Structure formats: structure tokens, C-alpha cells
Amino acid sequence: MKKEKIDLSLLNKIFIPNMPTQTVLTDVGSNLDVIELIKFFLNPTPNPKIYRELGDGLIKNYGVTVVIDSSISCFGGASLIHSLQTIKMLLSSLSIIELPCFDLIIATESNPVIICNERNTFEILSDNSQIWPIFFSLITRKISNVDLASSIRAAFNLHNYRRNEHTDFLFVLTDGLFSESERQKITDNVHYCISRGMKVFGIGIGMCPYGIEKLFPQIIYSKNPMKLIEGISDLSLILLYFYYYFHLLIISRNIYYFVNLLEPFIIFIFIIISSIINKNNLLLSNFNLIFYNLFLIFL
């Protein structure tokens, strides 16, 4: 994947800078800097900068876990090219932004294989990274069934034992073709991850990802893998708008518990409206937001 073809502005919409870069000295604050305080006692000055507070500059402080379904339905026959292109697009995109914490998990027929965890994206996703031979050997084994549920649970375990705190994304790449019993295990683990603060996205790979809508609350399937990041960016924007406006209005009116039951339905309706008005990957317009607010006001 040529990195110049990846739109960095789309990635910045998904991974919004969210952590101050460093602390700075100020003359007001709550965190005393002992060294500067001693300097002030030795050499008093007006308006001494003896407090150390977080600065204004922000960097991206995110943890990203990618789980890949290695079954033959994803990597066999006509599905192979689309699956590889989708994975290449996602990983190449992550490689051009510096994120401090990246995990890669391959779902196999038994235990998940954690290729890497808590690695910097610049380092681990570089062209000469040591993970690529292992990665390709695992996805070309042509196994019939994988235990995706245990891989998603492993993703949560990595999130739970982070050495540092991050906002965590989980991207699960699969075609969703599982039995009813396996589907239930997968959705249970997906909901568990979400309940613990992880942002979970299901990404369809292969030619027939018919089952992903039954597994994940947010799904993206791009027939043209080059549009994958655009789809994730648009979906992230929709979720951000809905979360902000919905909760702000509901909490202010003290009807949280009543309307919260309607939230999935409301979001579904407005995603449909958005897709009709904006035919480019569900982008919200000002009209959508105004219409959405009016709807909530008259609930």
C-alpha cells in the first residue's frame, strides 16, 4: 500500500488528539513543582512559575487492537484478494500515524495467537517489521473454523492489563459466518468489551460477509477496500454526534431512563435518514443534526 494514497485527515477524525504532550510551568495551578519552589525561595521573583500543569498541545493516546478471522471462508477462493486488500488498507493506514499501543491477534481453531501487543505503530507496522512472516503463515493455513469469541476475549484482557491508560479501539475483521451457538459467544464477548469502554467495530472481509451485522453494533463493509478508512471515519463521526447531542438533551430533561430505551431505534432511524440525504458514506449534515434535535425536543 502506497502511503501517499492514504488520507491522513480521515485518520485524524477517527483518532482525534486527546492527550497533552507535556507539562509546563505556570504561575497558577494546583501541582507545585518542588524544584521551582526551592529556586523561588533562593531567588524570589514576582509572579513565580512554581506550578507544573498540563500543556495545550495534544497527541494521540489510543490503544488499537486488530483481531483477524483466519478461516478459509475469509482467505480461500474468491475471498482472498478482498480480505488481503482490506487488511492491508487498515494496517497501512495505522502505520502512518503514531499510536503508542497496538495489538494484533489472529483467531485460530483453538487459542488465539497474539502476534504483538502494546507496540508503537510506527515500529511494529513498518515494512521491515518481524511480524509479517508470522502473520502470513497464520492466515494461509486454510482452517475451516476459528474460535473468534476467545480472540475477542483476549483483546479485552490486553486492554484490561495495559501498563498505561488509553482510549481503546477494537477492530474485528471477519465474514461473520458462524453457527448460532458460536454467534452467541461472540456477541457476549463483544458486549462485554463495549461495557468496559472499548470502541468495537466489525469490518467485513471476503465476498460474503453476511453475518457481521448479527455480531457487532458498528459494522463497515467496503467492496472497494480503498474506501475502508473513509467508512470508519464517517461512522465514527455519526457516533460522536449522536452520543453528544443525545445525552446532552436527555440528561438535561431528566428523562434519561425512558428515552435510553429508544436510543438504538433513534440511532437506526437517523442513520437511514443520513444515508438518504448524504449518499457518501453516511456523513451527517447540519440538516440532519437540526432535524435530530427537533425530534428529541418533541419526544
Brief rundown of the structure:
Helix content is 45%, strand content 17%.
Question: What is the count of β-strands?
Answer: 10
Question: How much is the radius of gyration in Å?
Answer: 22 Å
**CATH-defined fold name of the largest domain:** Rossmann fold
Counting H and I runs of at least 4 residues, what is the number of helices?
12
Please mark out the parts with pLDDT under 50 across 5 or more consecutive residues, or reply none.
249-261, 276-299
How many separate domains make up the residues? 3
**Helix content bin:** 40-55%
Overall average residue pLDDT = 80
Which descriptor suits the 3D outline? elongated
What proportion of the residues form beta strands (DSSP E)? 15-25%
Query: Which architecture of the largest domain per CATH?
Result: 3-Layer(aba) Sandwich
CATH superfamily placement of the largest domain = von Willebrand factor, type A domain
Q: For the record, what CATH class of the largest domain applies? A: Alpha Beta
Query: SSE string, helix = H, strand = E?
Result: HEEHEEEHHEEHHHEHEEHHHH
Structural class by sheet pairing and helices? alpha/beta
Protein architecture, described:
It is a single chain. The chain has 299 residues and is α/β, with parallel strands linked by helices. It folds into 3 domains: 35 residues, no CATH class; 163 residues, Rossmann fold (3-Layer(aba) Sandwich), CATH 3.40.50.410; 65 residues. The chain contains 12 helices and 10 strands. Helix 8 links the parallel strand 8 and strand 9. Helix 1 runs parallel beside helix 9, helix 7 runs parallel beside helix 8 and helix 9 runs parallel beside helix 12. The longest helix is centred in the C-terminal third of the chain and has 25 residues.
